[in-house]
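Tokens for chain A. Residues wanted.
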């Protein structure tokens, strides 16, 4: 897993899972705490995430809300879009361009 960027936009790549969760949490919390306005997470380079990785995203979302900021997901890969829809988190998280639920293949 790698994260690069600043306090306004971060690009997350690789795998966001139990092995990388602690490092990702530290970087995301720092970006939320040190910035202002929306924090955009570009996920176009993300290969996969597991429940722990999704928990890190939700934790950053909650922290951003407490800081008066908004966490915005950009470039969510289709397989991860399906997971967000299945867990109904697409209704809670801000997703740039939204998720076309009707265009996702049924699982």
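Reply:
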């Amino acid at each position: 897993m790698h994260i690069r960027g600043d306090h306004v936009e971060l690009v997350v790549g690789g795998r966001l899972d139990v092995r990388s969760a602690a490092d990702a949490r530290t970087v995301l919390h720092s970006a939320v705490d040190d910035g202002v306005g929306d924090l955009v997470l570009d996920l176009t380079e993300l290969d996969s995430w597991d429940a722990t990785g999704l928990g890190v995203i939700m934790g950053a979302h909650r922290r951003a809300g407490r800081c008066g900021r908004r966490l915005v997901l950009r470039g969510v890969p289709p397989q991860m879009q399906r997971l967000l829809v299945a867990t109904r988190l697409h209704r809670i998280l801000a997703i740039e361009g939204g998720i076309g639920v009707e265009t996702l293949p049924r699982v």
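The mean pLDDT is 90. Helices lie at 21-34, 51-66, 78-86.
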